[in-house]
Amino acid sequence: MNTYSIPPLLSAIILFILFLMGIFKAKNAHVNLLFSLICLIGCMLNIDKTLLTIIQDETLAIRISRIDHAFLVFIIPLYLHFTILATEHKGWMPLVKIFYIIAFLLIPLTQHHLYLTGIIRYYFGFFAASGPLFYIFGTFCTLSVVLSLYLLFKSLKEERVSIKKTRIKYIILSFGLAAFVNHFDVAVMGGYEAYPIGNFIFVPMCLLGYAIYRHDVMEWKIFLNKGIVFVTLLLISTGFFIGLQVLLKTFFRNSLNTDLISLTAMLFTFLLIYISKERLQHFLIQFLQQEFIKNRKAIKDLSFEILTLYSVGKIKKTIIERLSKTFILERCNIKMVSRVEENEVFRFIHETDELWKEGYRLSLPVPSKSYPAYMLLGEKGDMSLYTGEETEILSILANHIALALDNAGSYKKIQDFSNSLEKLVDERTKALIQSESLAAVGRLAAGIAHELNNPIAGVMSTLEYYIEHLEGQNELLDDLIFSLNELKRTKEIIKSLLEASRQKDEMKELVEIDAPIEDTLRILHNQYKLKKISINKKFNATNNIIKGNSARLCQVFINIIKNAIDAIGDEDGVITIETFNKDEKQLVCKVTDSGAGIEKQLLKDIFKPFFTTKQQGRGIGLGLFIVHEIIKDHEGTVEVESDKEKGTSFTFVFPCHR
């Protein structure tokens, strides 16, 4: 065995391994069985070539070649049959049957001396010499390859699924290399002395096997980027080795033996590979990855851009637009989900997946804490698969998207907090202004009280004098006593207003709720007696005692009932006053009128100070505010229900006492 035996022996070993792999996979698909048979025939051919470099008997050499060519004729139908199953062009199957018949008819011709005329001795060993009948096989073999390539290119043009399109690209590239290297063997069989390039058939056959078993995982550009360096170096080193060997034999045939010449050529070849490998690899990768480098820069710029955006909608829109433009995508989307699994990685979408039917091919998790999502990408414009390098940079982009979405979520929270803070400041400012207004009212009330208390005290003194000295005039005496009591009530009201503005506590005692209600009705009698208003009293409380201040409670009912009278106006109306116990611990007092009512949107504001629905000059908006504060001071609650044109109902709930 010599150095010339190594390439065909390596090809035989690789093809036998591929044959076993195909047999193992054959139960899943007929295309794998056909691939195995093609590998087996190629293995037998390369065993033949290996033996021809070793044996020295011409008779044995020609016998081995004839046996090998008896099986080689079946490469004609097998190539076409394999292509038809791979491309699913079943309409060409009748032609395959014809090619199988032709292959069987060619078997006896392979043993004729006009098929292989003899054996030729070259410097690398024996090689069969072709005869006229051999070119019949060559013609049909070429026809099979041409038809196969036609079907492959036709499918490549029509196919719209990137995975299937990539498989076809692999097969075309494999057939192209196989046809290229095998044509050199025909030249050697014709008498041209050169080392058979067909001995390196393992290169395209490995690529073909790679296409069949790995097409759904890898992209053919990956093979070019990773493997073309090897193929290029292999072709360069082979050519350099053969050329240097021929050159050394020409000049040193007499002084050096054959083995020494081969060893010298091999050493120089290894030296060439060592020197040129890295430079050649760098050049080829830069040349082949121009588009990838451009896309990587575009994705890098996109990563920086989205980090400057603070709106989830803008981030999604920018990503979809830029990725669609970069990869010429048919579909692209950022799909929000409830959660993304920890340590989840990208995945290629399977044909059975619903996302596949929607046109998506790649899914990348976006592990955002605020807005978890998946980045979904469809077919690329050139119908190529996503390479490992592309999925890597897209995964990095997905992490940047997660960061951008989290930033947007944090920005939204800060913005919402800022808006709520501004609203709170605005409310507190208004409350402060209202507080200042109330303080001003308090100061004003103090001045008014000072001015009013003196004349009221004088009138009260006069009334008290006449009450003490009038005898026998009961009707006049009663009126004077009533007037005195009302002046006292007026004084208490002024005092209550002062206390409300100063927010001071006052003395409370047990009070029957009916008493301040009756007092209120007596005070307001003159205001409703001439109107068409009837008062309906329903005092049903079994326990009507609360702890409070009678004067201030009277002030509450004066405000409420006075508003009810104003709401009814000159129309017919009813004011209903009810008292009842909600339970043994609560007393309810309800005042309902049939007046104009209050609009729904205004109900939330009626207890605010200086808010009024009355015409200008008829109210300053303090009545219900004072009511609310007095009820609150009595540990009670107040609720209001109203419908426009249907009336209003105020419900007071107090804790009752015994």
Q: Which key phrases capture this entry?
A:
19 helices; 62% helix; five-stranded mixed β-sheet
Strand order of the largest sheet: 8-10-11-13-12
Number of helices: 19
Average pLDDT confidence is 81
Structural class based on helices, strands and sheet pairing: alpha+beta
Cα distance, first to last residue?
123 Å
**Biggest sheet features:** 5 strands, mixed
Q: Whole-number radius of gyration?
A: 52 Å
How much of the residues is beta strand, in percent? 5-15%
Residue ranges: pLDDT <50 for 5 or more in a row?
Answer: 213-225
What shape does the CA trace take? Answer: rod-shaped
DSSP E strands, number: 13
Give the helix proportion (percent range). Answer: 55-70%
Secondary-structure blueprint:
Blueprint: H1 6-25, H2 30-52, H3 58-72, H4 75-87, H5 93-109, E1 116-122, E2 125-130, H6 134-158, H7 162-189, H8 202-214, H9 220-252, H10 258-288, H11 290-306, H12 312-327, E3 332-336, E4 347-348, H13 354-357, E5 360-366, E6 373-378, H14 388-469, H15 474-502, E7 509-512, H16 514-523, H17 525-528, E8 533-539, E9 545-548, H18 550-568, E10 573-583, E11 586-593, H19 623-633, E12 637-643, E13 647-655
Parallel strand pairs: 8-10
Antiparallel strand pairs: 1-2, 3-6, 4-5, 5-6, 7-9, 10-11, 11-13, 12-13
Helix pairs in contact: 1-2, 1-8, 2-3, 2-4, 4-5, 4-6, 6-7, 7-8, 9-10, 11-12, 11-14, 14-15, 16-18, 18-19
Written overview of the protein:
The longest helix is centred in the middle third of the chain and has 82 residues, at 388-469. It is built from 19 helices and 13 strands. Mean pLDDT is 81; it is low at 213-225. 62% of the residues lie in helices and 13% in strands. The chain has 658 residues and is an alpha+beta fold. The N and C termini lie far apart (123 Å). Strand 12 (637-643) and strand 13 form a beta hairpin. The strands form four sheets. Strands 8-10-11-13-12 form a five-stranded mixed β-sheet, with helices on one face. It has helices spanning 6-25, 30-52, 58-72, 75-87, 93-109, 134-158, 162-189, 202-214, 220-252, 258-288, 290-306, 312-327, 354-357, 388-469, 474-502, 514-523, 525-528, 550-568, 623-633, and strands at 116-122, 125-130, 332-336, 347-348, 360-366, 373-378, 509-512, 533-539, 545-548, 573-583, 586-593, 637-643, 647-655.
